[in-house]
C-alpha cells in the first residue's frame, strides 16, 4: 500500500481505511527505527503523530498537548516508561488510550499493573494488528469506525533510521561508557536488533545484558557489539 499524502490531507473524517483520522498520537520512543515504523502506521491510519525520545521530552509535550493515544516504550534513556505510564494512568483528565511497547514480552504484566490499557510487543509491523489494538483500548465515545487494513500488511521502516540508531550506539560505546550506559546500550540495542530481525546483533546485546546482570566482565560482548555495529555502518545496507 503506497502512502498517498494528498489523500491523507483530503480525508477529514474516519474511514475504514483511515480509522484514526482526526486523532493525535504521542509516541515516546528513543529508537528512530522503531519510531519510523510508528510514523508509517499513523500516516496510513490517518492519525497525527508527535514524538518524544525520552521521559523529559514526553512530559514537556504533555504540558502543552493532550493526545488521544499515548504509546510509551518501557526502556528510555532517562528512566523507565513505567513511571510515565503510572503518572498518566491516574492523571485527571486521563488520556483516552495508554499503551506500553517493548521487545520484552515478559514486561506486559508490569505495564498493565502500572496502568497501561494494552501492550504492543515489538517489532510492530502489521498495520491491521496495530489498528486493532488501538481500537480495542479506545473508549467507546472516542472510538472511530472499524479498521479494514489488509491482514499481513507489513510496515517496513526506512533503513536510514536504523543506521541512525546504530550510529547512536557507536557514540555511546566510547571510552566513557560506564555501567549505567552499558545497561542502556544492552536494552536499546536488543530492541532495535529485534525490530530489524538481526539475530547476531540481538544475541550480542543479550549477552551484554546477561553479563551486566551477573556482574561479569563485559569485554567479550562489547567487542562483538563494536564489530557488528561497525560492519553494519560500513555496509550499503545495515541489515
From TrEMBL:
SMART domains per record: REC
Domain Response regulatory: 24-137
Name of this protein: Response regulator
Domain of life: Bacteria
Chain positions found as 4-aspartylphosphate: 73
This protein's record includes keyword Phosphoprotein: yes
Native source organism of the sequence: Albidovulum litorale
UniProt entry keywords in alphabetical sequence: Phosphoprotein
Amino acid at each position: 500500500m503506497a502512502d498517498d499524502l494528498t489523500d491523507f490531507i483530503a480525508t477529514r473524517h474516519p474511514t475504514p481505511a483511515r480509522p484514526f483520522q482526526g486523532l493525535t498520537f504521542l509516541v515516546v520512543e528513543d529508537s528512530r527505527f522503531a519510531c519510523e515504523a510508528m510514523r508509517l502506521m499513523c500516516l496510513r491510519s490517518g492519525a497525527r503523530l508527535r514524538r518524544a525520545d525520552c521521559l523529559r521530552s514526553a512530559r514537556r509535550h504533555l504540558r502543552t498537548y493532550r493526545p488521544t493515544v499515548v504509546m510509551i516504550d518501557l526502556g528510555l534513556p532517562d528512566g523507565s516508561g513505567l513511571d510515565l505510564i503510572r503518572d498518566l494512568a491516574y492523571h485527571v483528565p486521563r488520556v483516552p488510550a495508554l499503551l506500553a511497547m517493548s521487545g520484552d514480552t515478559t514486561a506486559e504484566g508490569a505495564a498493565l499493573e502500572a496502568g497501561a490499557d494494552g501492550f504492543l510487543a515489538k517489532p510492530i509491523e502489521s498495520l491491521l494488528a496495530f489498528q486493532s489494538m488501538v481500537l480495542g483500548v479506545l473508549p467507546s465515545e472516542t472510538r472511530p469506525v472499524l479498521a479494514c487494513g489488509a491482514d499481513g500488511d507489513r510496515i517496513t521502516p526506512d533503513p536510514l533510521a536504523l543506521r541512525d540508531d546504530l550510529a547512536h550506539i557507536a557514540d555511546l560505546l566510547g571510552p566513557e561508557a560506564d555501567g549505567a550506559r552499558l545497561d542502556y546500550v544492552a536494552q536499546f540495542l536488543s530492541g532495535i536488533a529485534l525490530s530489524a530481525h538481526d539475530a547476531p546483533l540481538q544475541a550480542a546485546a543479550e549477552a551484554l545484558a546477561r553479563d551486566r546482570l551477573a556482574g561479569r566482565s563485559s569485554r567479550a560482548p562489547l567487542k562483538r557489539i563494536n564489530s557488528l555495529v561497525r560492519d553494519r555502518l560500513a555496509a550499503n545496507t545495515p541489515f
